[in-house]
């Protein structure tokens, strides 16, 4: 069985065409059942006894995060999502509150930085919004921030940012680096980046349950106080079990195999959408991610298009408003983010439906 067939067979059939993994992937039967079984076990033996019994499953989930990030000695905690992880990191930060990030930084992340009183410095970018490798070293050296926050793949575009280059530049300058891997984790290679902290969400490319995420930190990066608070905070153990099972399935399928297939999926999606000449694909055809964003023809509202694709064609995509990347986006787009199991028929259905609902 191919990876695509195995991935599809491992989960309930989709009611239509699901092209929305950057928002929320489809969970497997195994992940769904593991979470349900844990909830059942809580009812049988008591929530705290069940949590002790689940410890090996959760340890396996944390071990998978260490393996996938190449952070072999990292502290790994389950969070409620990526924004929660950033909130934990910034509220814990003991240093000066000056942080550098890309112009295209995720809007909700900018809001969290502002809420914690951080002054924001923009990293230099080229004409595509990609980190400018020629300028970054000098920029960090001449006016160093206290902390660098780097989103390796955004929510608003499939452009992959050179995370290893920023890690190298931070290392040279002795600057701590936090990586937002909400879209990068279980999608792009996250191993051995050399970050001090890396976080992600469960429901996106890792295909775990909603409302959960992971935060991996270099030992000592979080204060003892915060570490202790996180250990004792109330948590949704069932969903941590579900995520741990999803990560186990990801590791078993082969992270490199999934990464390679997702690159193919991105290229196939852009090739299919390029046939619609009135819609403009924003990424280069061979951009190595499975996120594609398209700008609609004049007068066509992507919010309306997304709703009609669901209601009339049972095709799920994402509306991407400018608030996702307020420093870069000038108008809203439609995002198409299939997982490894997308077929040519799915992409043909999308292009036909897009043509129908946008009248092109
Ligand atoms: C989705 C996303 C987040 C926020 O993740 P939550 O789990 O919803 O908090 C942060 N950064 C990026 C790049 C995202 O795509």
TrEMBL record:
SUPFAM superfamilies in the record: PLP-dependent transferases (SSF53383)
Keyword Phosphoprotein: no
Enzyme Commission (EC) number: 4.4.-.-
Cofactor(s) recorded in Swiss-Prot or TrEMBL: pyridoxal 5'-phosphate
InterPro entries per UniProt: Aminotrans_V_dom, EgtE, PyrdxlP-dep_Trfase, PyrdxlP-dep_Trfase_major, PyrdxlP-dep_Trfase_small
Biological pathway: Amino-acid biosynthesis; ergothioneine biosynthesis
Substrates-to-products reaction catalysed: S-(hercyn-2-yl)-L-cysteine S-oxide + AH2 + H(+) = ergothioneine + pyruvate + A + NH4(+)
Keyword Iron-sulfur on entry: no
Keywords, alphabetical: Lyase, Pyridoxal phosphate
Aminotransferase class V domain mapped to chain residues: 17-223
Pfam families (alphabetical): Aminotran_5
Record PTM N6-(pyridoxal phosphate)lysine, positions in chain: 204
Gene3D superfamilies named among the record's database cross-references: Aspartate Aminotransferase, domain 1, Type I PLP-dependent aspartate aminotransferase-like (Major domain)
Similarity annotation: Belongs to the class-V pyridoxal-phosphate-dependent aminotransferase family. EgtE subfamily.
Protein task: Probably catalyzes the conversion of hercynylcysteine sulfoxide to ergothioneine.
Entry protein name: Probable hercynylcysteine sulfoxide lyase
């Amino acid at each position: 069985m191919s990876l695509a067939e195995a991935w599809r067979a491992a989960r309930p059939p989709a009611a239509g065409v699901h092209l929305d993994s950057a928002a929320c992937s489809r969970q497997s039967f195994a992940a769904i059942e593991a979470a349900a079984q844990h909830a059942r076990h809580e009812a049988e033996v008591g929530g705290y006894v069940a949590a002790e019994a689940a410890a090996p499953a959760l340890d396996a989930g944390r071990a998978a995060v260490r393996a996938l990030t190449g952070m072999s000695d990292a502290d790994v905690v389950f969070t409620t999502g990526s924004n929660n992880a950033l909130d934990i990191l910034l509220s814990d930060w003991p240093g000066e509150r000056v942080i550098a990030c890309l112009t295209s930084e995720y809007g909700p992340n900018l809001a969290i930085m502002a809420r914690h009183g951080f002054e924001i410095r923009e990293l230099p970018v080229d004409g595509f919004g990609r980190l400018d490798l020629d300028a970054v070293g000098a920029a960090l050296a001449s006016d160093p921030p206290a902390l660098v926050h780097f989103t390796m793949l955004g929510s608003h575009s499939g452009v992959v940012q050179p995370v290893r280059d920023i890690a190298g530049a931070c290392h040279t300058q002795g600057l701590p680096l936090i990586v937002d891997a909400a879209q990068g984790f279980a999608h792009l290679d996250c191993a051995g980046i050399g970050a001090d902290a890396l976080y992600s969400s469960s429901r996106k490319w890792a295909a775990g349950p909603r409302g959960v995420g992971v935060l991996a930190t270099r030992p000592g990066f979080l204060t003892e106080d915060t570490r202790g608070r996180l250990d004792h905070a109330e948590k949704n153990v069932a969903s941590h079990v579900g995520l741990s099972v999803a990560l186990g399935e990801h590791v078993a399928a082969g992270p490199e195999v999934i990464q390679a297939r997702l690159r193919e999926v991105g290229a196939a999606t852009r090739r299919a959408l390029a046939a619609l000449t009135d819609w403009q694909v924003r990424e280069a055809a061979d951009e190595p991610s499975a996120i594609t964003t398209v700008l609609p023809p004049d007068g066509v509202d992507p919010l309306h298009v997304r709703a009609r694709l669901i209601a009339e064609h049972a095709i799920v995509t994402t509306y991407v408003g400018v608030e996702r990347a307020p420093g870069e986006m000038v108008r809203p787009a439609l995002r198409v983010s299939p997982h490894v199991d997308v077929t040519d028929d799915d992409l043909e259905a999308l292009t036909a439906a897009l043509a129908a609902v946008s009248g092109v």
